């Protein structure tokens, strides 16, 4: 399946048209990947081998991205973690632009504001995914974008939809059949992940994680559902679910987890904000037979 910018909603079409995709991975992984997801081929100069010095600048940019998104959540990645878990065995995929094409706020945020950095390629988004032993299965480790920089939104440099289009194209590139992930009940990215397919809950409470009130999920990837959110006229489902879990209700989270451990099967179907804060968002779960 190929997609042209004209087939996409304007905000997604603009990103695909005006930004270029990049990939950071060890070259031995390339034969297993689709290097032209939906027809948007990755240029050879934007294929980065993390074992080579040429990749240093773009990898620095990835760590700025990580700090924008997760620096305040006690989940900032040390450089060795991104290399060992993502850049070498898996993929880091996203969209970017040369520094000369960025506005002043973004150039400052990425520390490329001097004229000598005009030609530096800047990663504006990234999806980090790790290959699982199960055939066709990947674990989505990190999804970040420059839209998390407060001054970028205020200065009009934001790229709405950047996270969504990055994940959709990244899933296609990795030929993902099952996408696993872990996230927090209060995450403001839940709506994005939900739009890409059925989110089956594998647990609701995770003591192994830094944040215990995290859940693990599996999305069985369907090609049509994957691209549907990018097309004009798509609307998020606002119905469904027979059980409510509020992100700030630890008792409800533990009760759901206990039911899962007892053999219950559930999927997350929708999210709604409460009081304008994601910390108090409400999540609707559907019981599966």
Q: Can you tell me about this structure?
A:
The chain is globular, with a radius of gyration of 19 Å. The model has no long low-confidence stretch (mean pLDDT 92). 27% of the residues lie in helices and 27% in strands. It starts with 9 loop residues before the first helix and ends with a strand. It folds into two domains: 1-172, no CATH class; 177-289, no CATH class. Strands 1, 2, 3, 4, 5, 6, 7, 8, 9, 10, 11 and 12 form a twelve-stranded mixed sheet that branches. Strand 5 (125-131) and strand 6 form a beta hairpin. The chain is α+β, with helices and mostly antiparallel strands. The protein has nine helices and twelve strands. The protein has helices at residues 10-18, 56-70, 79-87, 104-109, 150-154, 162-173, 190-194, 223-227, 250-261, and strands at 20-24, 47-48, 91-98, 121-123, 125-131, 137-145, 178-184, 199-203, 214-220, 243-246, 265-274, 277-288.
């Amino acid at each position: 399946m190929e997609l042209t910018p004209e087939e996409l909603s304007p905000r997604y079409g603009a990103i695909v048209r005006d930004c270029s995709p990049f990939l950071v991975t060890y070259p031995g992984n390339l034969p297993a990947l689709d290097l032209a997801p939906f027809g948007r081929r990755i240029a050879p100069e934007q294929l980065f081998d993390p074992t080579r010095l040429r990749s240093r600048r773009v990898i620095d940019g990835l760590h700025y991205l990580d700090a924008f998104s997760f620096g305040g959540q006690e989940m900032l990645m040390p450089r060795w973690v991104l290399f060992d878990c993502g850049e070498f065995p898996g993929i880091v995929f996203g969209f970017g632009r040369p520094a000369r094409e960025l506005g002043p706020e973004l150039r400052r945020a990425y520390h490329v504001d001097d004229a000598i950095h005009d030609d530096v390629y800047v990663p504006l988004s990234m999806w980090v995914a790790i290959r699982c032993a199960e055939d066709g299965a990947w674990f989505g480790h990190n999804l970040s974008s420059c839209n998390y920089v407060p001054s970028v939104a205020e200065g009009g440099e934001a790229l709405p939809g950047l996270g969504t289009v990055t994940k959709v194209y990244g899933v296609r590139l990795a030929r993902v059949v099952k996408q696993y992930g872990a996230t927090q009940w209060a995450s403001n990215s839940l709506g994005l992940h939900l739009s890409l397919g059925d989110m089956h809950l594998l647990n609701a409470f995770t003591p192994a994680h830094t944040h215990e009130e995290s859940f693990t999920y599996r999305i069985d990837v369907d090609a049509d559902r994957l691209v549907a959110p990018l097309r004009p006229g798509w609307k998020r489902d606002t119905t469904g679910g027979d059980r409510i879990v509020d992100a700030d209700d630890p008792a409800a989270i533990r009760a759901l987890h206990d039911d899962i451990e007892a053999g219950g099967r559930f999927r997350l179907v929708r999210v709604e904000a409460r009081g304008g804060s994601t910390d108090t968002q409400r999540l609707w779960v559907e019981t599966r037979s």
